[in-house]
Amino acid sequence: xxxxxxxxxxxxxxxSVLNYGLQMSLKCVLVEDTKLGAxxxxxxxxxxxxxxxxxxxxxxxxxxxxxxxxxxxxxxxxELIGKRxxxxxxxxxxxxxxxxxxxxxxLYKGVGEFVGDYEMIVKSxxxxxxIGHFKGEKFVLASGARSLIPPIQGLDEIEYVTNKNFFxxxxxxxxxxxxIIIGGGVIAAEFAHIFSAFGTNVTIVEMLPRLVxxxxxxxxxxxxxxxxxxxxxxxxxxxxKVGIKKNLKTVIVQNVESGKEIxxxxxxxxxxxxxxSNADLLAVEKTGVETDERGWIKTNKYLETSKPNIWxxxxxxxxxxxxxxxxxxADICANNIFGPPDDKREVDYSVVPWAIFTSPQIGxxxxxxxxxxxxxxxxxxxxxNYSSVAKGFAMGYESDDFDNGFVKLVIDKSYKLLGAHVxxxxxxxxVQPFVYLMNAGYTCDSPDFPGRTGSNKLGRAxxxxxxxxxxxxxxxxxxxxxxVTGWAIGKMRPINIKSHGHEHQHEH
Length: 508
Known about the structure:
Distance between the termini: 72 Å
CATH class of the largest domain: Alpha Beta
CATH topology of the largest domain: FAD/NAD(P)-binding domain
Number of helices: 15
Number of domains: 3
Largest sheet: 7 strands, mixed
Oligomer: single chain
């Protein structure tokens, strides 16, 4: 049986830690059961954006009538769009070729499974036969997640699409005529935007009362209102049975409140009902690694699992499943594995940003209003619409428009920024400066500062850190869309503040 210094499961952000090990001339092994590059490169954020951008252009052409320009999309080249998408996915082939020649590295293309303490076998994806058997001194579990398949009657008897096989054998030669999407989260919202823009008759089925439940209720409502201009949205509806009828796929959905059933028909069904852990495939319990009640691998603030010398990060720990968060964790994990034991770094998830690249686009960082109150904060909220600034009006947004986007800031009574939420054009870019602001000002802890390794920003020693004051004191380029966020401070209103002094009101 082979023995390795470092075993990395997963070739997404896990490659960063692997690279550190290889630079230290450690004997390493990498296990990956799909294409190199994992979810983000091969079946997630990167290829999906190659589809999102053309869809954005179609919607922008439609919106142009608001400013007096009539544009007509005569046709689209789905073959070219697909070719550009595959060019990104196929970078995994170059990665695999390159890694196969790296000294001190053994690459296994298969499914890793623990069979004992620090002992693993690798099974072939095709044959399920054992292609590797080894022990490792240190393990890094960056094993990702997979589509959660809900228990719907008949689903195991028909073919359906997930984000994994869509970027594989299920990629359509042309957009489907009709599509039923089961789920209402990030993946569902992006696919709904893509295919509705390309002319597909899309129906979203979400059992919860609103779409994108991670967002502010106002943003969910805004997205639903805009979606209904282009597709059918059924919230509070649960898919209970699927089948085939007249060469179409059927889904029977039930209203969760009334119990009333509806039959839907479409050319294809996309399952986007959430993600589930891969820990069961790894059989982590056989090496003493604990999981939570939903199957995600438990990690502490140093990304250590319950088993010494086994770390976990990325989607595998179930926390904020975004590639940029995994990259952040990879650096911390590498530091904690290879750095001095007394210089371990803690993870800090207080300022995790993300965007949902649907239409309208959504940007998010930090707490929602509800989360801030639940965490004991007394808060202000500031809301500002695109139509309130000159650039927003120039772009065709007026106060009573159904697509008049907005920013919502959540602010502690100390003026510390707790959250920023944007819905509308360029939301991802508009929210990013708040990420910088919320991280700013925490440099007062010198190398000798006794709490140096602590990362809870809100508990550090700079009361002005992370406040909105740099925003309040700064000039904002006029006229630009930045004024939507920059001027929001002038619209602060208290939500649950028991006693407070004067509020800063900003005239522009």
